[in-house]
Amino acid sequence: MNYQFDWSVVTSNFPRLLDGLLMTLEIAVVVIVLSMILAIPVAFLRMSNIEVVRWLAQIYIEIFRCTPLLVQLFWVYYALPTLTGITIPGTISAVIALTLNLTAFMAEAYRSGFQAVPPEQVEAGKMLRLSRVQQMRYIIVPQALKQQLPVILSLNISLFKDTALVSTIAVADLMFTANKISTESYRALEILTVAALMYFVIAFPASLILSKIERNLMMGSSVRKKKGLAVQMMPSGKVKVKP
User: Fold this and answer.
1) Cα–Cα distance for residue pair 239/55, rounded to 1 Å
2) Is residue 107 within 8 Å of 43, Cβ to Cβ?
3) pTM above 0.70, yes or no
4) Distance CA 121, CA 160 (A)
5) What are 182-191's contacts with CB under 8 Å, separation 24+?
């Protein structure tokens, strides 16, 4: 191997790479926040008793789950302006496409969590005369989010990595900046290696946190089951309920 590494190209262009990383993080944060909010009504529409509403939500979810994200990005950036007659900037197109995509996956995660909430707790909320909004706020949504937290975090990590695709529509994210610098300097190996490490430095700690949460949930569930069995076996056992 006769290749001579030159890491000075990295140090001289590191501020540009940081700017690209900042753009990547900004897009990821905006998309995650919007998707976590929008996925709640979509999940409830998916469970609606009205067949037409349920099918419309299902169609939306399946379209964005069963088509490539890159195609969705291109469609929003190139095809949507043809329909609307409005030119959409690359950054906004990226946010729209990524949000629609993540919302579809997040809605299915929420739906699974909502359906796992024990019906007795919902009935108890009705007995306490809680409105439907109050039931969602205090009973259904908190429990669903807690149960589906590993899935939600996994989707968010995947979204962060998928933001690299927005470079294809000229959004100045980390991948776009790295490609531009490597083209200018003819040092693709050094630049792309550092870009990959920057993605890794963000995604790997998040993966460790996800693994820790999954282990805690599994251990907590096991402890609760054992505790419940022991309490049942004790004639005068009392269960302490945490506020």
Assistant:
1) 43
2) yes
3) yes
4) 35
5) 185/9, 185/13, 187/6, 187/9, 189/3, 189/5, 190/5, 190/6, 190/7, 190/9, 190/10, 191/9, 191/10, 191/13, 191/17
Distance in angstroms (rounded) separating the CA atoms of residues 177 and 105: 29
Let me know: does 92 contact 170? Beta carbons within 8 Å: no
Which pair of structure tokens corresponds to residue 31? 């998309």
Any domain includes 19: yes
**Whole-angstrom distance between the N-terminal and C-terminal Cα of the chain?**
64
Neighbours of 90 (CB within 10 A): 19
Chain segment 101-120, per-residue pLDDT in tens: 999 999 999 998 888 888 88
Which of 95, 65, 61 has its CA nearest to residue 80? Answer: 95
Rounded CA-CA distance 238/234 in Å is: 9
CATH number, position 147: 1.10.3720.10
Q: Which structural domain, as residue segments, surrounds residue 151?
A: 15-233
149: confidence class by pLDDT, cuts 50, 70, 90: confident
Structure token pair of residue 223: 């402890």
Domain count across the chain: 1
Write phi, then psi, for 2 (nearest 5 degrees): -100, 5
Q: What is the DSSP string of 158-191?
A: HHHHHGGGGGGGT--SHHHHHHHHHHHHT-HHHH
